[in-house]
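pls design
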C-alpha cells in the first residue's frame, strides 16, 4: 500500500486480502461493493455475522476521501474502529461520549484528510457543525448501519434515524449504502422510502442455513415432547430451550434436571456472577441444556449448539430466526423444534394489545406475531417460507419437517363454521373438551346438565375424530377465530367479529392442516 495516495486500493480483492486477511468475497459482498464503486446506492439485508461491514469498509478503502458510517451503538462503533486501526486503517469516531481533547484530534485528522472511515452517531452527524465540516471534506460514501432503525416496522425504531433523509440534500452525489440484519418486505420498503434511496440496488442474502432442520409442532404435552426430542439428539450434544418467563425457565430447568438432564436456567433475574458461571459451563462442557429466556443470546459464542427448542412461541418471525439461528454455527447438522399452541398465541396477542405502546406499534407487533404463526401453521417448505419473508428464495429444501413429513392442507370452512357455532351456541364459556363433546354428540354429564344435546349443532361433527376436532380448535385459535379465556378456566370464545363473521357467512375459506394420522393419536411415540 502506497502511503502517498493514503492507501487507496485499485482492486477490492486486494483490499480484502491485505487489510482483512480474507481470500474471497462472501455472497452478495462483491455486488454491494461494485454498486458503491460505480457510485450507486445499495440496501444490504443479511444476517448478523454475515460480513456486512466489509460491504462499505472495502469501498471506503478503494475510493478517495472519507467514508461516513452512521451507527447507533457506541460500543459497536468503538469495536469496529479498534479493529480497523489494528489493521492499519485510519478510522475515527465522533459521539457524545468523546472527551474534548480526543474530539479535537479527530476533527484535525478529518480536516487534514487522513481519516478513511468516520463512525458517527446519527444525532451527532445531524448537528449543523458536523454536517458543515463534512461538507468541506471529500466524502467517499455514506454507510447507514442498523438501517431498520429508520422504520417503525423494524424492532428498534429510532426517531433520529428518520432525519437521515437530510443527507440526500447535503451530499447529493455521494453513494449511500444502508445495512440491516432484519428487514421484512414492509421494513425494506420503508427504509428505501425514508432514506430517499428509491434507486438503490437491493441485495438480500445469507439467510439460508442449510444445516438447520426446522421443525414445528402443536404444543400438547410440552415436557414430553421436549423429552422425546432430546432423546433423539446425538449423545453429548448441547442445546438451548427457550421459554417465555423467568419463572418458567427455573421450573423447566428443575424438571429437566430431575429427569436426568444437565439443565440450568438462565435469565435476567439471576445475578451477574451466576449468569456468567452458567454461560461458561454451557460453553465449556458437552451435553448441556440451557433453559433460557430471551436474555440468553447476546454473546453466546458456542459454535456447536446442536439444537434449539422453543417451548413458547416467540413474538415475531425475526426473533424466532435469531434464536433458532444460534444452533449449528459450525455448519454441522443441527435441529430445532418450535412448539406453538393456542394458549401461547392468545397470551402474546393480549400482552401486545394491553401494552402501553402506541396503537401504531401494537398493530405492527400483532402483524409480526401473525407472520410467525403463519409460518408455524403453514404446510409448505419452512425454508422457502423463511427466505421469502426475508426477501430471498429457494426450492423446497427436502430438509424441514414440512418437506420430510408433508401435511395435507384441506378446506376446513365447514368444520370451522360448525366449531364456531358450537362455541357461540354454548355461550362462549366452555373449554375445548366440552365443545368437542357437543360437536361429536357425546351425551356427557356436562352436556346433559347444560341441555346442550338440544342444540342444532349437537352431533353435527360426529364423523370427525376427537383428536382431529381438538386440532381444528387449536388451529382456529392460533388464527384468531377463537380466543382462549386466560383468566378463567381456558374457556373458548369467538375472536373479533371482523374475522369471524366472514367465515360464518361463507365469504372466507379456511384452510386447515390435517396432520399425519400418527400425530393425531394421543399416545404417539417416535
Ligand atoms: P455483520 O455486520 O454482518 O454482523 P461483520 O461485518 O461483523 O458481520 O463480520 C462478521 C465476521 O465475518 C467478521 O469476523 C469478518 O471478519 C468475517 N468476514 C467478513 N467478510 C468475510 C469474507 N469475505 N470471508 C471470510 N470472513 C469474512
Ligand atoms: Zn423444506
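designed seq:
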Amino acid at each position: 500500500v502506497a502511503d502517498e495516495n493514503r492507501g487507496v486500493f485499485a482492486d477490492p480483492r486486494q483490499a480484502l486480502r491485505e487489510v482483512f486477511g480474507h481470500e474471497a468475497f462472501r455472497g452478495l459482498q462483491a455486488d454491494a461493493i461494485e454498486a458503491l464503486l460505480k457510485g450507486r446506492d445499495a440496501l444490504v439485508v443479511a444476517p448478523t455475522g454475515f460480513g456486512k461491514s466489509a460491504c462499505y469498509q472495502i469501498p471506503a478503502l478503494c475510493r478517495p476521501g472519507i467514508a461516513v458510517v452512521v451507527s447507533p451503538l457506541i460500543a459497536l462503533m468503538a469495536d469496529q474502529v479498534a479493529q480497523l486501526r489494528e489493521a492499519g486503517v485510519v478510522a475515527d469516531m465522533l459521539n457524545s461520549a468523546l472527551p474534548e481533547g480526543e474530539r479535537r484530534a479527530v476533527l484535525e485528522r478529518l480536516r487534514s484528510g487522513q481519516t478513511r472511515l468516520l463512525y458517527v452517531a446519527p444525532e451527532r452527524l445531524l448537528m449543523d457543525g458536523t454536517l458543515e465540516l463534512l461538507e468541506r471534506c471529500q466524502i467517499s460514501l455514506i454507510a447507514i448501519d442498523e438501517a431498520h432503525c429508520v422504520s417503525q416496522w423494524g424492532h428498534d425504531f429510532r426517531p433520529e434515524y428518520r432525519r437521515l433523509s437530510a443527507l440526500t440534500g447535503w451530499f447529493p452525489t455521494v453513494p449511500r449504502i444502508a445495512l440491516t440484519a432484519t428487514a421484512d418486505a414492509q421494513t425494506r420498503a420503508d427504509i428505501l422510502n425514508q432514506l430517499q434511496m428509491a434507486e438503490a440496488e437491493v441485495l438480500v442474502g445469507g439467510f439460508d442455513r442449510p444445516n438447520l432442520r426446522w421443525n414445528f409442532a402443536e404444543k400438547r404435552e410440552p415436557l414430553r415432547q421436549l423429552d422425546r426430542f432430546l432423546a433423539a439428539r446425538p449423545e453429548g450434544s448441547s442445546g438451548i430451550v427457550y421459554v417465555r418467563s423467568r419463572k418458567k425457565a427455573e421450573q423447566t430447568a428443575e424438571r429437566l434436571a430431575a429427569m436426568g438432564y444437565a439443565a440450568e436456567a438462565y435469565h435476567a433475574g439471576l445475578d451477574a456472577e451466576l449468569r456468567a458461571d452458567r454461560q461458561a459451563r454451557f460453553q465449556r462442557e458437552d451435553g448441556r441444556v440451557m433453559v433460557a429466556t430471551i436474555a440468553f443470546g447476546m454473546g453466546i459464542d458456542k459454535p456447536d449448539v446442536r439444537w434449539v427448542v422453543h417451548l413458547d412461541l416467540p413474538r415475531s418471525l425475526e426473533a424466532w430466526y435469531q434464536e433458532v439461528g444460534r444452533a449449528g454455527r459450525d455448519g454441522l447438522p443441527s435441529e430445532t423444534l418450535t412448539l406453538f399452541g393456542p394458549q401461547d398465541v392468545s397470551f402474546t396477542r393480549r400482552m401486545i394489545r394491553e401494552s402501553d405502546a402506541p396503537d401504531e406499534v401494537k398493530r405492527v407487533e400483532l402483524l409480526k406475531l401473525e407472520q410467525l404463526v403463519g409460518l408455524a401453521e403453514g404446510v409448505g417448505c419452512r425454508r422457502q417460507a423463511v427466505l421469502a419473508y426475508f426477501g430471498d428464495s429457494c426450492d423446497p429444501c427436502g430438509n424441514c419437517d414440512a418437506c420430510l413429513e408433508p401435511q395435507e392442507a384441506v378446506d376446513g370452512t365447514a368444520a370451522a363454521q360448525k366449531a364456531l357455532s358450537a362455541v357461540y351456541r354454548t355461550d362462549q364459556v366452555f373449554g375445548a373438551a366440552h365443545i368437542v363433546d357437543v360437536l361429536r354428540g357425546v351425551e356427557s354429564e356436562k352436556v346433559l346438565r347444560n341441555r346442550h344435546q338440544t342444540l342444532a349443532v349437537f352431533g353435527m361433527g360426529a364423523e370427525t375424530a376427537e383428536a382431529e376436532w381438538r386440532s381444528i380448535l387449536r388451529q382456529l385459535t392460533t388464527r384468531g377465530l377463537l380466543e382462549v379465556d386466560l383468566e378463567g378456566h381456558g374457556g373458548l370464545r369467538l375472536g373479533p367479529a371482523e374475522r369471524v363473521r366472514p367465515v360464518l357467512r361463507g365469504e372466507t375459506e379456511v384452510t386447515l392442516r390435517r396432520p399425519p394420522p400418527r400425530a393425531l393419536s394421543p399416545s404417539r411415540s417416535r
